[in-house]
Specification:
The protein has helices at residues 3-7, 11-35, 43-65, 76-92, 97-113. It is mainly alpha-helical.
Length: 114
């Protein structure tokens, strides 16, 4: 076994690390660098929040309307009802995300078991 063959095994891992970490961490660094200078009421931050919220809403809508796996076996009415119940629980029980998620999941699981 030569030194060349011993050193070749780790290059794919370095490539994966750099290819996966660099694009992610560069944006995090820019966010930290700029984040302290941006006012919470600025138009730029309002746009960022709107885009982030719309992306989450899109993913949730896709999961409800076009599910895959075990969720696809459930009724669309059950999925919509669980999401609606979770949202209402969030609104009326202290605006805590965890409460909305737990209520929505509990209704979905109960509906699947019935």
């Amino acid at each position: 076994m030569t030194w060349q063959s011993l050193s070749d095994w780790w290059w794919p891992y370095v490539f994966i690390l750099l290819g996966g970490a660099f694009p992610t961490y560069i944006w995090r660094f820019i966010g930290v660098f700029i984040g302290g200078r941006v006012s919470e009421d600025s138009e730029a931050l309002i746009i960022v929040r709107a885009v982030a919220t719309s992306l989450v809403a899109g993913v949730i809508a896709q999961l409800i309307l076009y599910p895959s796996g075990a969720l696809a076996e459930s009724s669309v009415y059950l999925r919509i009802g669980a999401a609606l119940a979770g949202f209402l629980a969030y609104l009326y029980l202290g605006r805590r995300v965890i409460i909305g998620v737990v209520v929505g999941e509990a209704i979905l699981i109960a509906g699947l078991l019935l």
